Every structure is written in C-alpha cells, then in structure tokens.
Amino acid sequence: SRKQRKLLRKAAPDQEPGKDITRIFNIFNAYFTVDMVESTPELEQLVKSCSCIIGLHPDEATDHIVDVAISHSIPFAVVPCCVFSRQFPNRSIPVNFVKSNETESSPNKPVKTRKELIKYLALKHPSIQQGKISCRGANVVLYSKFSSSKQTKK
Predict the structure, then answer these.
(1) How far apart are CA 60 and CA 52, in angstroms?
(2) Is 28 strand, coil or helix?
(3) DSSP conformational letter for 18
(4) Do residues 17 and 1 lie in contact, with contact meaning Cβ atoms separated by under 8 Å?
(5) CA distance 53 to 14
C-alpha cells in the first residue's frame, strides 16, 4: 500500500522501496522450534533480541512461533491458516461434553479445522488474545503482548 511504501522510505531513505528489506527487519530462514532456538546460541541470541515475532499464514511453523514466543516471553502475532492435521496428529482440544456423540472417556478431539486450530493455539497460554484483520480468507490473528511484567518460563 501507499502507506507501507512511505513507511519503508522513512525507515531506509537511501533504499529503493522493496530492496534489501533486511536492513529494516531481521529475516532468517531456519528450523524454528523451542529446542532448536535453545540449542543454537546464534538463533537464541537473535530471538532474545526480537521485540516481537510475527507469522502471517506461517503454515507448519505456527505452533513453533507461538511456543518460542511463550518460552521467551516475547510479544507475538500469528495469523493461522492451514491446519495440516495429518502432519500434527497430536494437536487436540477439549471436547464439548454437551454433544450427544461425545463421551467423557475421550476428553480431547483432534484438531481438524481452522476454528479448532485457533482454539488449540489460544489455549497454549492465558495471555493469548484474538482479533481480526481486514482481509478475506484466514483473517483471525492470535497475539500476546506479554505485558511489562515478564511471564514465567515454562
């Protein structure tokens, strides 16, 4: 948008819009899990220096972004899109016992829809909030600001 181009010109006036955006943001391509971050000093230092972590339609990285942000108390925002239920069969959410076809012997059900994925992610930490962005398609954003009082790790 015009507003974004103006913002980029202010942030890096000597650069053409869209060129070398890494001067403004830290962008990296790495396997991104809590274990990988904690076992790779360079990656851990980069994560600790982040003011926030953002994932727009991050596909398979969605859980990891949320988990890393929670474990380091870093504000984050994710816009979950694809569920990938076959790749993540261990994702589950509490069953609503009001439904007649559910029993108390199976208190969790696998995450299979975007709505269930959003609920699953929101249940990861009490500080996670939900909002909407103005676009078509997957437009629910989950975020946490992790207020000035640092959350406890794990």
Answers:
(1) 19
(2) coil
(3) T
(4) no
(5) 26
- Neighbouring CB atoms inside 10 A of 111's CB total 22
Long-range pairs of 37-40 with CB within 8 A, sequence gap ≥ 24 = 37/68, 37/71, 37/72, 38/71
Euclidean distance between CA atoms 4 and 17, whole angstroms: 9
Each residue's pLDDT expressed in tens, for the chain with a length of 154 residues: 676 666 666 665 555 555 554 555 666 666 778 998 888 888 888 888 888 999 998 999 999 999 999 999 999 999 999 999 999 999 999 887 335 455 555 588 999 999 999 999 999 999 999 999 998 889 999 999 986 444 444 4
Tokens describing residue 50: 């982040």
Are residues 94 and 108 in contact, defined by beta-carbon separation less than 8 angstroms?
A: yes
**How many Å separate Cα 4 from the centre of its chain?**
22
Helix residue ranges, H only, 56-133: 62-72, 114-122
